Amino acid sequence: MRGLQERGPGPAATPCGCVKPALETGNLLTEPIGYLESCFSAKNGTPRQPSICSHSRACLRIRKSIFNNPEHSLMGLDQFSHVWILFVFHKNGHWSCKAKVQPPRLNGAKTGVFSTRSPHRPNAIGLTLAKLEKVEDVSQASFKYFQSAEEARRAIEAVLSADPRSVYRRKLCQDRLFYFTVDTAHVTCWFGDGFAEVLRIKPASAPVQLTDPAESLLSLGCK
């Protein structure tokens, strides 16, 4: 996307000095909402269209910089079976393009670039229809020892019921906050007169380290 922006002219100004909207000047600057990772790590061998390899899979990672809570933008999306994805060929080896190309299916014959799927075109934009397999929020930690969140909840309740604080913390310590870790959950709580309240649960740095916890995932079946 940066390469496309640098090539275009700068925004024009109105007589009063205000910058004209991008659509009025013929330019539209966009920011990617995420990046796609598929089972094909290189272009060699990648099918020209999804129907050729119906078993192919990909994940679309939504960037944290787009929203403070990117998982909120995906709410309700799991109610749909397919999604349209508008994307940019940001890994093109070069930004130059030709009016005629030689697609593999024509065995060397030339044809107009707009009648092909060539990524090398004036605007390196593509459109695909993908089957939506699932929507995941990877900011949620996966457990190492528990099989579900319900098991973790019962374990936390058991710890709180036993009041794991030392005698010093119970009678002399003025800091009423108490911290402990269960599996991959770091729990912050406080104890009152005959009760305990959990204030916060967040992923612990150990024993399991999350992979980029600030992103959300779309699991896509490209069919």
Tags for this entry?
5-stranded antiparallel beta sheet, single chain, 3-stranded antiparallel beta sheet, 13% helix, alpha+beta, Elongation Factor Tu (Ef-tu), domain 3, disordered N terminus
Structure summary:
The chain has four helices and ten strands.
Model description:
The protein has 223 residues and is an alpha+beta fold. It folds into two domains: 147 residues, YaeB-like (Elongation Factor Tu (Ef-tu), domain 3); 55 residues, no CATH class. 13% of the residues lie in helices and 28% in strands. It contains four helices and ten strands. The longest helix is centred in the last third of the chain and has 13 residues. The protein is elongated, with a radius of gyration of 26 Å. The two termini are 26 Å apart. Keywords: S-adenosyl-L-methionine. This is tRNA methyltransferase O.
Query: Helix coverage percent of residues?
Result: 10-25%
The structural domain count equals: 2
Mean pLDDT: 77
Main beta sheet strand tally, sense and closure: 5 strands, antiparallel
Succession of helices and strands: HHEEEEEEHHEEEE
At CATH's second level, what is the architecture of the largest domain? Beta Barrel
Structural class: alpha+beta
Q: Largest beta sheet: what is the strand line-up?
A: 1-2-10-6-3
Strand content: 25-35%
CA-based shape: elongated
Q: What is the CA–CA distance across the termini?
A: 26 Å
Rg over C-alpha atoms, rounded to the nearest angstrom: 26 Å
CATH topology-level name of the largest domain = Elongation Factor Tu (Ef-tu), domain 3
Q: Could you tell me the number of beta strands?
A: 10
Uncertain parts: 1-9, 14-19, 206-216
What is the CATH class name of the largest domain? Mainly Beta
What is the H level of CATH, i.e. the homologous superfamily of the largest domain? YaeB-like
Number of helices: 4
Pfam families: TrmO_N
InterPro entries: TrmO-like_N, UPF0066_cons_site, YaeB-like, YaeB-like_sf, YaeB_N_sf
Protein name: tRNA methyltransferase O
Family: Belongs to the tRNA methyltransferase O family.
